[in-house]
Design goal:
This protein is about 45% helix and about 20% strand. The chain is α/β, with parallel strands linked by helices. α1 packs across α5.
Length: about 120
């Protein structure tokens, strides 16, 4: 499975990449905030290399959140599965993420196998 990682913490991106690659998945792009995420996604879209799934942190630097990015990506490519990650897993946030187009929600800190399982579960649909 091809995966894009969006998280403002370099350590978290590195950890997610490591565990996804160990599970046999390919990380095709990484981003740390709204502009870099949209730029990377549009490049992948342009070259026909859309990811099968995206891990998306809700809280990002700047005025735009992971929910904003999810909404925009979902409008461009509704079949891309997005698994939201956040340390603040309130019911309101989960509902907003799902309304924006997220497929699943994993609360930080998570065990790497939880995230991998959420991505694989959604990709199997």
């Amino acid at each position: 499975m091809k995966v894009m990682i969006v998280d403002d913490a370099a350590f978290m991106r590195m950890m997610i990449r490591k565990h996804l690659e160990e599970a046999g998945h390919e990380v095709v792009a990484e981003a740390f905030e709204y502009h870099s995420a949209m730029d990377e996604f549009k490049k992948l879209l342009k070259f026909g290399r859309l990811p099968d799934a995206i891990t998306m942190d809700i809280t990002l630097p700047g005025r735009r959140s992971g929910i904003d990015i999810t909404r925009e990506i979902h409008a461009l490519a509704p079949d891309v599965r997005i698994v939201m990650t956040s340390a603040m897993g309130t019911q309101h946030m989960v509902i907003d993420a799902m309304k924006a187009g997220a497929s699943d929600f994993v609360v930080k800190p998570f065990k790497p196998e939880q995230l991998v399982a959420a991505l694989e579960r959604r990709a199997a649909e």
